[in-house]
Each structure stands twice: as C-alpha cells, then as structure tokens.
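Chain X:
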Amino acid sequence: LALRYPLAPEHPFPAAPDDVDAALAEAEVMNPELGPLNLGGDSAGGCLVLGAMAGGMARGQRYGALLLASPAGLIDVSRPVPPADDLLFPVSILRRIARDYARDHDPADPRLSPVHADLAGAPPALIRCAKGELLEEDTDLIAAQLRAAGGVVTVEKAARTVHAWHFMAGGLPVADLAVARMADFLRRHA
C-alpha cells in the first residue's frame, strides 16, 4: 500500500498525518488475516510512518518490521541545521519545508516530530541514510529513540551518495544494493 498524502504548503500539518493515520487504521481493519503489517517510508514518509505507527501501537496494534530511508524525525523551524548541503536536499529546502509544513505547531508534538513519540513495542527496524546528508542526524535521533524504547535497530549509512538514493534503483548500482538489503531485512523480519 503506497499512500499519496496531501502536501504543504497547501495542506500543512496535520493534514498528512491525519490521512496516513486513517489509511493505516483502515488497512489494519480490512486485512486482519494478513497478520502484522510491515511499515516503511522515506524522508517525509518516514516521519509520517513513525507517527502513524506510534498511534497504532497506542491502539494496541503490532507491526512486523519497520523500514526507513533517510527519514525526517524532528520538524522544528528553530533547529540548527548542518552547514553543508546535500546535492539533492539543500538546507534552504529543509528550512522551507519545516516552515510551510509545521507553521506554528509545537515541534514537540510526536505526530510532527516522531523523535518525541512513544515507540515502546516497535518492531525490528532498519534505517538507512546517506553519510553526511541533512537527515543523517534525524536517523541517529530516531534510532536512539527506538533503542531507548527497547527496540532492535540496525542503522546503515552509505558513503558517496545522496538523500533517498534508493529511488534510483534500476539505474544506479548502489541503489540496487540498497533495495536488495532492504528486501533481505523484510524477508528476515516480516
């Protein structure tokens, strides 16, 4: 199930998490015979999946595996950001996204910034990011939050690549390898 969620600035927070929460709750109700769902997301999608997963776990849902690629975890317009730009994801875009999406919402809201969510009971997680990308710190923060909640987390950082390079699979060998590693993780944990 791949979700198309509403985008900022036309649809600021909480429009996207509301849609993702509703879709996940519907998938859980409609497909109970499938067993625990596996969840995944990249970049902003990683942020949305984490928030939705925390909400689902609060409702008593359990999930099979969590797969994140270059996830956003802390949406805060006052947050200091690294001085270096990622080739595909410059600092200016990160600041604009935070401003247009979050508006005046409290950055400690776990649906906005899932590093503040209660992640107790989270499934095994694989988090991948590019070494040196703008969201590498978010990867570390999310991994620390999951571990603090008792989760089993594997973090893999790829050198000499860019934010969410996984989508270049089929045209870039390092992306093909990344997707194969994610598939292996799902086969082991799903």
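Chain Y:
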Amino acid sequence: MKITETIHAIRHDFKLLLEEGRTIERFVYSYILVGKTICLIDAGVAATAPALLEYVRGLGRRPEEIGWILLTHSHPDHLGGCAPILRTVPTAKVAVHPAERPWVEDVQRQYRERPIPNLFELVGEGVRVDHEFADGEEFAWEEGRSVRVIATPGHSAGSVAFFDAREGALFSGDAVPAAGTIPIYCDPDASLASVERLKNLSGVRLLLSSWHEPIEGERIFETMDGGRRYIERIDALVREIRAAEPGLACGEMSRKTLERLGIRVPKVLFMVEASFRGHWEKIAGAGNP
C-alpha cells in the first residue's frame, strides 16, 4: 500500500496459536521507506518475509538495497521476518532499543520469558543487533534521511516510535492500543505516559501504527485518546472485579475482564494475562483491596 512517495505499508496476516488445534487470526503492519536505499520499519513474521521482499521488487527496487531494519520492539510479529530477509540481504543491519536486544538475539530466551505457543513458527531464529537506539536520537538511515527515535515503553520495556519529520509520519509500533481489541502491554501506566508523549508531538500528519490503517488529521488524536481511554477503562474494570472477588486468581480475573470488554477467547494467553497483571499489581501495590 502506497502511503506517500517515499513510504509504503505492507500488512502481514498470521495465526496465533492458542493451544493445539485452536488459533486466532492476527495482523500487523510494517513499513518500507524508499530513498537512495531502502529502510524497513519492522519485518512481520517469518512466513511473510517473501511477500515483503516481493513488494520491494514490485517497486522496481532490489532487496539488496535494504540497508536497515529498524525494530519498534522485539515481539515475534515485528522480529520474525528479519532472519529470512538477512539471508537474502546479509549486508542489511538491524537496530533496536537496548532493552529489547536480548530477545532479538536470543529467541529461546524470549520464549522462556514470554511463552507463545507458536513463537518459533513466527520467528525462527534471532538476529544480530548492529545499533542500539537512544531516546531522542536522530537516526540517519541514509545520507539526508533520518527518523527521530522516541522511547514509548509500556507495550514492552524498550518499545520505541519513529518520527519522520520530512513526511510528518509517526511510526508508533504498538504504543497506541487499538480500542476494543485484546490488550497487550506490560505496564499500563507507562503505556498511558507513552500515548500522551506521542499525542504532544508536533508536526504529525500521519499516524502509521502496527494495528491501525493509516490515519490522518484529527483522527490521529482521536485514535490516541481512544487508546488512552481503553487502558483507563481496563484499569477501572480490574479494580471493580478485584473489589468484588478479592480472592480471584489473575488468570480468571483476566478472562472476566475480557468478557466485560465484549471479548471472548477460548484461552487467555500468557502475554494477555500479563497486561491485566500490570493493573492487578499496581492496584495491590497501592494497598487497594
């Protein structure tokens, strides 16, 4: 999908395994920045890497022109395509926030710490990291073309967004929750702060996230406000359920909260329960019942 003369989006459809024989459909966007060379923002899952490379060829460019892969974070649907791409383009380099580096380079460790049943299908192997981002740095992916790195912890500890001031394009990764979908973040307070930080960024004309169609104009702020309100609603529901049933286990509380949000799933995955656990632990730490 062409967004501007220099930015293209590609949607990666994949299946997330819940348990043997049960999957749910998911998707994620990555972005192709076109200049003298090519820069990728996120790489999808392993199985969709060939489609990404074919899209590059469809632009009349060669995959060998890919110079950098910039990762908003290390989760499988952003990292998985890196290894297949690097097998085709071994000269391409990978950049990520230092907090995400261990999971990028060691997917076995990622599986131990954040088990997803089909993680090794989504991301077959880790890749080397060539550059670690610093908050606020202007990362030049080629001469005359750069993006500003914006730390957006919450979805994960080292999540970042990228701002292309030339295009007014904000690549937000998973920092802005999609209201009404399964919540995935590790720290609700950090997520709220990150959304607010992005909302206060000046010069944004395009919001290019992992979970939304490209968004322009006033809808950018409406989307960010919707994500903020969604986190706040979840927090209120967790407080309400915890107060009504203080002895409830976190897993069951997660299932009940999802149902109150109108979301029914056959199984609550570890990464989804972790989202609710962030609220749970915050409430417990504040001395609430």
